[in-house]
Structures are given as structure tokens and as C-alpha cells.
Amino acid sequence: MGTSSAIVAQRLLPRRGDYGFDAPYVPAIFIGIGVVLLVIGLLVLLLWQVPVWGVICLLYCVYMLLSAASYIYTTRRGKFQVWSELLRELKLKGDEEILDLGCGRGAVLLMAAKFLHEGKGHGVDIWRTVDQSGNASSTTQKNAELEGVAERVTLHTADMRQLPFADNSFDLIVSSVAIHNIPSRDGRDQALSEAVRVLKPGGRLLIVDIRETRHYAQHLTSLGMDVANPRMLDWRFCYGAPWVAGTLVQATKPSAV
Fold it and tell me: What range does the domain containing 211 cover?
């Protein structure tokens, strides 16, 4: 019998590990632009006395600083809250084999592993620090130990476009804001095709990303997957502006595929 999801939910948050920042240069750019606009706005108002342009600069300053605050909230707290809800909705039994594509420092992988008692969580990444600060397999392994799931997690250094797993290996595949880092559409399609290949018939796929999600849904449909309409997530998964909010793509592999 699987672990009670109510008991697991109590263990999901707060997190014990350190999960860094997604694309850490982005909030730094927001803050830098905000500070520059603040200085320019004050100079325009106080020295050059051009109220309209001064107010415009200050308004854009506020916008950039609020965007930075939203980004930092999402990467440090909001995405964990949303993913904990998504994982609870799956009603996992605890014996699943789970794969996280682009696991990074383990934000989703280690949360999913807390639902397991007989299954295993597998994380795949190429460990680029431009995608996540301090990204390294050793960091993720340490987080797994801090979260108490190290024995239920295996990490793999591999490209999601060439997964080192046999066909029909996993009951659940997840990916959080990772597939868009592949630079070409063909490469992203290849990663999706690989996900379908290693997913068991009847298995489920959950992708959250900030762009290309409608194309993900179209490509998965072309591969024979049963795909739900992409769903935009709420403000907790917003990286600074509504047009970079996370969108969920959810699909199931039919038994006939």
C-alpha cells in the first residue's frame, strides 16, 4: 500500500536542501536595470527637472524591481508549492519508476522521491550553471541526503535528447523549466520523443516550461500521446512577467503505443 499522500504532503515543504536560482543572471539583470532607471529618474526629476520623463523612468524602475522580486519568489518558493500540488494530484502508489528531465539541484526530483517506498527516482542533467546556480551532481546528491531520500534517487549525467534508458522504463516523467534550454526546435522535439520512448504504456508525462509549450503538446500528439490542453499556472510560477509564466503540459502514453 502506498504512502499516505497527506503524510507525504506534510514532508514536502519546507525544503531542507539548497536549490539555488534558476538562470541566476536574469534577476541580476532586472535589479541592475532597475537601479540604473532609479538613478536616471532621480537625475531627470531633481537636476534636469523634466517631470514626465522622470516619472516614466521611475515607473519602469518599479516594474523591473517587482519583476526581480517575482522571479526570486518563484525560483526560491513558488515553484515548490506548485509542484507539490501537481505531484499530490497524481496519487502515486509509491512503487513507480520516475524520471526527471533536467533535474538540476533536485527541486522536483527529490520532492517526487518522497512519495516512493519501493520505486526509484532518476535525475538526468548536463549540470550547466548558466541554467541553475551551483548546478552539479554532487550538489544534488547532497540535497538528496538532506531531504532523506538518497537511497531512492539515482543521478545520471546525460543529454535528454539521448537518454541512457531502455524503452518503456518509467511510470512517470517530469520536467521543470528545462526543455526550453535546448537551443533548437528539432532538439526539443528529440527530447520529447526520447521521453515518449522510455515511458511505459499507461505512463504519465508532466512538463512545466515557460515557452514552446503549445508546440510540445502538438509534437506529443503527433507521437500518439493523449495530451491535455496546456494550462497556464498561477502567479507562483511566474518568472517576472505574465508572458514568462509556467505552463503545464500533461500527457499519457496509451497502452497501444
Answer: 78-252
Q: How far is CA 30 from CA 4, 135, 137, 171, 236, in A?
A: 42, 22, 29, 39, 18
Interval 96-128: pLDDT, tens:
999 999 999 999 999 999 999 999 999 999 999
Contact 238, 70 (CB under 8 A): yes
Is 43 within a domain? yes
- Domain contains 235: yes
DSSP state letter for 236: G
3-state helix, strand, coil in the chain (%, to 5): 45, 20, 35
Dihedral sign for Cα 52, 58, 60, 66, please.
negative
Burial classification of residue 186, based on how many CB atoms lie within 10 Å of its CB (0-12 exposed, 13-18 middle, 19 or more buried): exposed
193 and 129 co-located in one domain: yes
In a domain, 15, yes or no: no
| Whether residue 154 sits in one domain with residue 65 | no
Interatomic CA distance for residues 200 and 156, integer angstroms: 19
DSSP calls for 9-36: HHHHSS--S----BSTHHHHHHHHHHHH
pLDDT tens profile 177-219: 999 999 999 999 999 999 999 999 999 999 999 999 999 999 9
Total domain count for the chain? 2
158 lies in the same domain as 230: yes
Other C-beta atoms within 10 Å of 28: how many? 13
What value, to the nearest 5°, has the Cα angle with vertex 73 and ends 183 and 66? 90
Are 66 and 91 part of one and the same domain?
no
